[in-house]
């Protein structure tokens, strides 16, 4: 099967064929994403929330994400693997950004890295691209900057904000990003921006006009507990099925109904006789 490359993705955009991206954080999920024919798999720093139980993406470290990236790498054969650079691992200097990106490629096996925001991240993106590593941008609701943005809320709702988004997107493209994720941006704004860009646009809560879509694994499968963002559709109810399975196991143990004979090893009768006499 033909692996997904930047060339394949550019061909998809040119042909108007939507590109599918999903997050994954471990080996079995990566196997499934590949089997499902997903094009891009993102080891998102959303792992902080959905896998590690932090209440934001701020605390997650490079070392924590590297463990997950390596596991996902082992499960992928076809999809392109993108790794998020976590908060505090790339902002301070081009040198820091290149060093961290190299760790995700060299140790983690990532094909590309993703960083958040415009501003200084435009220079960081350019430096990483210059080091030979493909980069994905991320604009709109950028969770690493949630406090500065006034919370987890839609971005680009004023003409000024929308123009800033377009300027940042053009600057990231100019810096060499092959794709940009737009999160929680009004559909009309993303549509306008997509029409002005040559690089791939990937939306999450950004309408249907982007070249591709991305969702968080635990959200789309109904694993995430509690309230979900407006932009999530739940395509399966894995929480209910998992709870059913674990509860059934606990009930079976308590009823001494599990393990049954077929789960049990035997000893030859003569050996058992020797043992008991
Ligand atoms: O970390 C993440 O899951 C992401 C996607 C929502 C784009 O950055
Ligand atoms: Na992220």
From TrEMBL:
Localization, UniProt: Cytoplasm
Cofactor: Mg(2+)
Residue positions of the active site: 183 (proton acceptor)
Positions contributing to 3-methyl-2-oxobutanoate binding: 45-46, 84, 114
Top EC category: transferase
Summary of subunit composition and partner proteins: Homodecamer; pentamer of dimers.
Entry protein name: 3-methyl-2-oxobutanoate hydroxymethyltransferase
